[in-house]
Amino acid sequence: MASPSRSGVFQAETDARLEAYAESISFDSRLYEHDIRGSIAHANMLRDVDLLTEEEFKLIKDTLETIRGELDRGELPMRFELEDIHMHVEQALIDRIGDTGRKLHTARSRNDQVSTDTRMWIRQSLDEIDALLVDLQAAFLSRCENDFDVVLPAYTHLQRAQPVLAPHYWLAYIEKLERDRQRIADCRKRVNQCSLGIAAVAGTTLPIDRQHTASALDFEGITANSLDTSSDRDFVVESTFVMSLIASHLSGWAEEWILWSTVEFDFIQIPQAFCTGSSIMPQKVNPDTLELTRGKSARVMGALQTLMLLIKNLPLAYNRDLQEDKPPLFDAFDTTRAMLELAAPIVRGAELKRESIAARIEKGYLDATTLMEWMIARGMPQRTAHHLVGAIVSEAMQQGVTLSDLPLETYQKLSDQIDESVYEVLGTANAIAAFRSEGSTAPARVREQIKLWTSRLENA
Ligand code: ARG
């Protein structure tokens, strides 16, 4: 069957190879619910401005609902020769109700239709991803109480830096995920503008009411310029960027926990339900889920690159290139969703290896900066204190001991400003207790943050 988009102007049949090359129904069929919802709202508006009669509207609406039911149940096989889901639904309508069905596309083009359907799909998907982000935040938060007594090394350059409470780590991820949520909310505003009614590119001479359709579809408003709207895929790129940053956060976390689950770190046990074995090495319990999270993030970021390249050379307005936006868009969202769905149970189920962590927590001079600040608080210039503590650490390294193990004579040999009270800030437990600043790992600050997030997530 010839595509309904080929008008009477065509004198030749479509080459069979073009049909296969140009179809998008194999991937855009998942827009069908939004497409039908958009069509019903459009028809409703056409009725209100007297472009359809009440009976015509009713017939269109009822038939579209029947078609939706058939699509829900997989009873309406996809027709690839109809190019895309939009033509597929419209043709099913025309097949059933003839000329009345032929009126649905009044004052509409697939250009505004595709854009609107995609906006509705992204809007819903953003909301779903947002809920998964909240769940992952809740998973991290749920660990905080139980892990409060665990001190972990904080790293910079993957070298031991300063001691932090384990919940300080969990709260760090909660903050990253919160920025992801903010980006979703911000991006959603630009997604949530209705394109319907710009028709192909210049608008329409027919007396449509765009606001009417927009509010029926729960859009915040309508897009302002038909040329811009016909060409615009910023909302696709932007929402995929938001997914990319989520994926990047998850990938960094996955990498961290992969390292932490090695014999070398031995900080954490990943739940076995999310690990796999080896077909040859019987002892292996591999953190494949986390490796896949790290690996799959590449797909999401790749999708963003594809979309950036897709739009960069397009003159106004709609160009068929834009049909290629959907595979990367869908893949970015599907992949991010899958990553989030698995991250939450891993976070909830993982166990810190307290003894192993504690056995080595005094290694690496995590309290050196605290000692330096103790000197500063006693009036020593920072640079001087920095140099002095470096010398003290060097002495401790040579003796193979910790700072708290160094005898007072050694301290006093290096500085006459040190007395017995220095031991009050040495050792990781003392160092942790000495923190004060906002945003620090001070136990009281961390408690405050846990409380804050508990109430925020209750209301999320
Ligand atoms: N399947 C196309 C897409 O997704 C539909 C738009 C076709 N418009 C056109 N002028 N050929 O972008």
UniProtKB/TrEMBL annotation:
Pathway(s): Amino-acid biosynthesis; L-arginine biosynthesis; L-arginine from L-ornithine and carbamoyl phosphate: step 3/3
What Pfam families does this protein's entry cite? Answer: ASL_C2, Lyase_1
> Where found, per UniProt?
Cytoplasm
E.C. number:
4.3.2.1
Keywords per UniProt: Amino-acid biosynthesis, Arginine biosynthesis, Cytoplasm, Lyase
Under the heading Gene3D superfamilies, the entry gives: Fumarase/aspartase (C-terminal domain), Fumarase/aspartase (Central domain), Fumarase/aspartase (N-terminal domain)
GO CC terms of this entry = cytosol
Where in this chain does the record put each Argininosuccinate lyase C-terminal domain?
365-432
What is a biological process (GO) this protein takes part in? L-arginine biosynthetic process via ornithine
- Which parts of the sequence belong to the Fumarate lyase N-terminal domain? 9-302
GO molecular function (one): argininosuccinate lyase activity
Q: Does the keyword Cytoplasm apply?
A: yes
Write down the InterPro entries for this protein, in alphabetical order: Arg_succ_lyase_C, Argininosuccinate_lyase, Fumarase/histidase_N, Fumarate_lyase_CS, Fumarate_lyase_fam, Fumarate_lyase_N, L-Aspartase-like
What is the top-level taxon of the source organism? Bacteria
Q: Which family does it belong to?
A: Belongs to the lyase 1 family. Argininosuccinate lyase subfamily.
What NCBIfam families does the record point to?
argH
Protein name as catalogued: Argininosuccinate lyase
